[in-house]
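FAQ: What does the model actually see?

It sees only this:
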Amino acid sequence: MKTKTLKPINNTGSQSRFFHLFVVPGMIFLLIFNYLPMFGLVMAFQDFVPAKGFFGSKFVGLKHFQYMLQLPDIGRVIRNTLIIAVGKIFFGMILAIAFAILLNEIRMKFLKSTVQTIVYLPHFLSWVVLAAVAVNLFNLDGSVNQILASIGIGKINFLGSNQVFRKLIIGTDVWKEFGYNSVVYLAAITGIDPSLHEAAAIDGASWWKRIWHITIPGMLPIIMLMTAMNLTSVLSAGFDQVYNLYSPIVYESGDVLDTYVYRIGLVGRQYSFGAAVGLARSAVATLMMVTANHLTDRLTGQRIY
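And it is asked to produce this:
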């Protein structure tokens, strides 16, 4: 008696089509809110008049880009943007790496989870909320200045001094984000072979030497990858934070490209010029992203995309 062999039913194609349906809402969202608005970039090459629309406004070519390069303020704005953005990236990364290393040393699960929750929480709060907290802490009558006055240092005008304002912006952003940014570095640490630390400890290596020669080299590919990814935001110093903390007094040190475009393009109703500045910034960010992706691939063998 012959027995029939049953062939397995291949449902891979139908299953994959079913799962692809879950991607459709996200793709529609991206299309509506990310790709369709890019048509507005045509304003950068027009003398845009809202009443005439895109098709009725006059095309002027690179007029607004040339005007942007001739402005006396643009150099100061770009310098402020670079200083603040690079400061956030550098100090935020250093503190996140250090915190991840120290957090990994905690052996009590309850204490570890409690510390993680405390330092992660600020990331999920809006700068509208945190800016109000920062203003109450750092204004002339705030808690920080009262402490400084009580120990004889004197009050510091954190929110109105061009010498201090950048440091306040960088410091508050690092405080807000370092806990959340440490997640990826903590994951990199857990991927390091524990036997390497055990062998080094047996050979008499101190904790610091094990961190320097085992932990940090093991984290290096992730550090390089995150550095490359952060470079793409080097011309974005954080509009929401700066806008909620700065004032005309500190425009000299605190005015960045995002706030400059907002003030000139929207408040000043120079839509075409604002679009030109925004497009130039996006073009530089794209170039830096491609360069960072290439360097990361050469140095670590990993690509951003």
